[in-house]
Model the fold of this input.
Amino acid sequence: MTDIKKITRKNIEKLTPYSSARDEFKETDGIFLDANENSIGSLSGDNLNRYPDPHQLNLKREISKIYQINSENIFLGNGSDEVIDLLVRAFCEPKIDKIMLFPPTYGMYKVVANINDITIIEIPLTDDFQLQTDKIISKLNENIKLIFICSPNNPSGNSFHKKDIIEILDNSNGIVIVDEAYIQFSEKDSLLNELEKYDNLIILQTFSKAIGMANIRLGMGFGNAQIISILNKIKFPYNINGLTQNVALKSISNIKRQNSSIKKIIVEKKKMVKSITKFSFVKKVFPSDANFLLVKFDNSERIYQFLLKNQIIVRDRSKEKNCENCLRITIGKSSENKKLISTLKSIERIKD
Ligand SMILES: *Cc1c(COP(=O)(O)O)cnc(C)c1O
Done:
């Protein structure tokens, strides 16, 4: 059992949160003269003059039905990035506490830790991008409050073995955050089923990738109600704007249709792997459970610049741990992927 109270920063535990007008009077009918809004209307002509629900109750109720998780176990953030930031601020005492990362991985964990002056312990992934579980466990200690595991991992694209994640969960007194931003593209199971067993597990998912709504900035954290209530206590009162809440509600009723775009992306990915593997300047295409491929080239800088000149923008990951000469390529629309392949073919012709 993780003692959540014990690992929370003392100032956060003692904090009296901001109480918004909407917290103090929750009915929907009445004459609302309590929040200094413009009662007459919005400049844009839309009905945007009232503050949104600070607790996103309707949206959480719908997410709760779809995921079969109680609302008290759901936190909604302005992107998963907000959830990552709040976890660090709630549990890590600057200059004293630490987080653990497994590079190469998603860059925001490190940036958020650096902003908050939190030391980072890095245990690199193996050459085939798996967790060094024994080494990780041997390095755990009381000051390591958060462990970030990104699975499927960005930028490598692979998933970690479930037994390794479970072993880390079993051995950590801190909170283990499993970032499942790409889980819908994977055939592997989400760890959502483990939430009941582990009170130190937080799972992050997002509307930005498979759901196709990166623009609305909506991330979800699932886990222990005690941890969720601490995040609720320190978030900005209206962190999820009303436009986002409304659009997310609309998309949820259509979530089945979503499966077809995921399937299309997976078909496109298979085609892309086949075509891209054939180029002589491609050294390796790493196995991917996500909507992108990490590709090792003989000279990634040359390829990157050539693609850029042809207005194809990919992500240079060559400076990341164990990613020398690697570019990360998002799977696009069929026409976009064809253009990428034909552009790469023209490089091969130049070479001949
Ligand atoms: C894209 C991505 C996210 C999503 O962040 P949002 O703030 O929800 O857009 C989270 N984690 C990883 C690993 C990602 O690649």
